[in-house]
Amino acid sequence: MIDPEQAAPALLVAGTTSDAGKSVLTAGLCRWLARQGVRVAPFKAQNMSLNSVVAPDGAEIGRAQAMQAAACGIEPGSAMNPILLKPGSDRSSQVIVRGRAIGEADALTYRSYTDHLRRVSLEALAELRADYDVVVCEGAGSPAEINLRAGDLANMGLARAARLPVLVVGDIDRGGVFAALHGTLALLEPRDQALVAGFVINKFRGAREILDPGLDMIRALTGRPVYGVLPWLDGLWLDVEDSLALGADRGPVRAPVGARSLRVAVVRLPRISNFTDIDALTVEPGVDVRFVTSPHEIADADLAIVPGSRATVADLAWLRERGLAAAVIDRARRGAPVLGVCGGYQMLARSIDDRVESGAGTVAGLGLLPTRVVFAQEKTLGRPSGIGYGHPVHAYAIHHGAVHADPDARTEPFLDGHLFGAVYGTTWHGALENDAFRRAFLADVAARAGRDFTCAPDTDFAAERTRRLDALGDLVEQHLDTDALWRLLEQGPPHGLPIVPPGGPGGAA
């Protein structure tokens, strides 16, 4: 049994690669435990993601941790994701600690933060372990990124510091899953290997009897069990962590296309952020959502969306270089609907004064709204609410750019932003998750686009999210060895696990 006098048990879900299924498995474990009456919380020490959310405590954290908190049936907080990195270019990221930005860092300067951030992450984990019965931790990327091991905060560095048992999940749909599992273990130092309790295989489709010999062989080669095989199921996970989960021409879910469908084209910006804003559209029957990178796809859609961006000025330049800006402008001039959200809203302005994010100074926007944007040093974080089309709207805001209407602007209000012709703009994220508002907005879009489209009257996005979280809990309950998982939580890392050569940089045992 779990001793209530001790720090709550915890385990770490690591993965062979990014997008192997760590977030999904973590959420599934959280849901399964919560349904057993366990007070459980998620944790990710360090997250690199452009999808974030504002928690009730005012902290900016990774969107995936907020949804894992929902799987636990609790509110999210800064302790669940104490370090968030938001890439602004290929070489630098904004560093957010306990929900507040502390500056920009590249790969080299970030090393100077490491000791401080390690303390922050371990303190946050200890805080959760004092408040909850179990903590399910999610790793980042792969634990076998041996060039980064010395400064690792989220994978084996965390596991060793907190003595956590580790599950390694591999995506069999990518191919080479057995090599990935074995190779991940073999590259770890012996003391790290000693914490790896076993494996989970994700996204399996096919005949299980064909897979079984491989499971037997990986057990024999590593001395570690496979805790289970999760089957492939479409459309399970909303709130994905990064754009690896998006295909070049599609969103997280594709609705069936028909004569009465409403076609939505979302520009897939290089530094696209909070594209989870689109999730609510993907669950609407008859709404066909595509993430696009070509002008003709923008021209052909009933609604074009320019989403958020971590690098507004740079992504605006990319829009122009690819001919996408001209396609968006052409849409607006012929009265075809365009929606800009946060960074995308800023791009629609006449001018952008950015001496903070890009340092570019004043640059021309697309000129589709009679507004100007000025970037502030202090980031705006909030959970605003208001009225849209006569319906209550609850959202969240994360931005440096403040939008100001021209003195002579003749626009209509749209949430906190503007509607000018058929061009809509708002800084609010998550607004489309409000069902009545979403239906009214899509009805307005369809009318302006001249489409015969009516939303389903009973689509409930919150209920759909709950259904998917329950499905993740079902996967864990039905396909993993939950008795063995309980033992892992109660007893910690197994003793006497064999070391797999070559044993990483630390050499053989």
From TrEMBL:
One of its GO terms (molecular function) is catalytic activity. It comes from the Bacteria. Residues 12-236 form the CobQ/CobB/MinD/ParA nucleotide binding domain. It comes from Nocardiopsis ansamitocini. One of its GO terms (biological process) is cobalamin biosynthetic process. Pathway: Cofactor biosynthesis; adenosylcobalamin biosynthesis. This is Cobyric acid synthase. The active site is at C342 (nucleophile), H429. Keywords: Cobalamin biosynthesis, Glutamine amidotransferase. Belongs to the CobB/CobQ family. CobQ subfamily. Catalyzes amidations at positions B, D, E, and G on adenosylcobyrinic A,C-diamide. NH(2) groups are provided by glutamine, and one molecule of ATP is hydrogenolyzed for each amidation. Residues 263-436 form the CobB/CobQ-like glutamine amidotransferase domain. The keyword Kinase does not apply. CDD domains: CobQ_N (cd05389), GATase1_CobQ (cd01750). The keyword Cytoplasm does not apply.
